Amino acid sequence: MLVHNPKIMLPDLKFCELKTNELMSLHTNFKIGGVCDFFVIPKTIEGIKSVINYVEQNEIPLLVIGNGTNLLFPDDKFPGVVMQIGESYFHEVKVINESFLQVESGTSISKLLEIATDKGLSGLEFMSGIPGTLGGAITMNAGAQRKRIGEIIERVKVINTKGEIYWIGQTDIRFGYRESRFKCSTGVYLPQKEFEIILEAEIKIKKNDSSKIKTRIQEITKSRESSLPLEFPSAGCVFKNTQDKLAGKLIELTGCKGLRVGDAQVSTQHANFIINVGKATYKDVRTLISKVQQKVYQKFKVSLETELIIINDTLYK
Questions:
Q1: What is the mean pLDDT of residues 201-209?
Q2: Domain limit, last residue, from 192, 225, 258
Q3: 9, part of any domain
Q4: Given 56, 84, 112, which residue is the final one in a domain?
Q5: pLDDT digits over 88-138, tens only?
Q6: Which of 23, 53, 228, 287 has the highest CB neighbour count under 10 A?
Q7: Residue 253: which of 297, 212, 222, 217 has the closest Cα?
């Protein structure tokens, strides 16, 4: 259990932007979340190292986020550091050759697609419309159109708790269905536990005509926009599909579409989305998730697993 330590002093972090008592609802697509002690945006790798040193020396938890697109954050105060590696500083995209791109982890998927299209580089189109950063997508092995980003990752550069920087090949990343070696079971890096933070990745691509790439991106984006409740705050799909059944279909067949707890609601447009229709809380969403899981299990004897990252509030209550 993590407890707020009032003796923890304001960190003197080099090469970082620092905010105190920052509302996490400002940094999640769900628009849900209480304050964190320290919200840090590193400007350089040295900045990331200074954050790692600080949390290690003070034995406080660390949450690393990109754009917070698939994150459910508690309403209670988080007694630690949230570090955002986003597009403000970690956004460089290099064309190594016609087979590989080298991309920093804070690069948004939309920006990556834009650059690839302009340069006539294909292979990323299936990611069209997926929000978030490359680092987050790799962590979750995000995907669509029956493809996953892990299939096109050649290797990933990381930094660990000792400040060591090294590359990890695709096989050792252990990609699975919405899983990788970088996904933390609690969502939070706990004190004195080893972890790795993604810095950049090499992505496999191929040469193609820019107009064909653009057309395919527009088709996929249009399909997503017509089928998903994108006008409401959400964290995307909540549950993993089973081996032979779509989670959304199972939820729909239980009559859960429109089911609501507080301002958290199962979308009437796509049953695998829980949307924030007003001022939904962390508890609202967690309760609704449990209700959906219970109803699906009662009807089909199927245990739905969540795919979004849920920060476990019991860690620090």
A1: 96
A2: 225
A3: no
A4: 84
A5: 999 999 999 989 999 999 999 999 999 999 999 999 999 999 999 999 999
A6: 228
A7: 297
Q: Are residues 197 and 312 in the same domain?
A: no
Q: Is residue 11 part of a domain?
A: no
| Residue span of the structural domain in which 79 resides | 16-84
> How many structural domains comprise the chain?
3
Burial of 204 per CB tally in 10 Å (0-12, 13-18, 19+): middle
* Residue-level pLDDT at 5: 55
Contacts of 35 (CB under 8 A, 6+ apart): 21, 22, 23, 24, 77, 78
In terms of phi and psi (left: phi > 0; alpha: psi -120 to 50; beta: otherwise), the region of 146 is left
Burial (CB < 10 A; 0-12, 13-18, 19+), residue 153, is: buried
Residue 214 pLDDT level (bands cut at 50, 70, 90): very high
When pLDDT is cut at 50, 70 and 90, the band that residue 141 belongs to is: very high
Q: What is the pLDDT of residue 299?
A: 97
Residue 3 has pLDDT above 50, yes or no: no
pTM, entire model: 0.93
What is the chain's length? Answer: 317
In a domain, 210, yes or no: yes
**Structure-block tokens of residue 213:** 């790439």
CATH number of the domain to which 127 belongs = 3.30.465.10
Contact assessment for residue 214 and residue 125, using Cβ atoms and an 8 Å cutoff: no
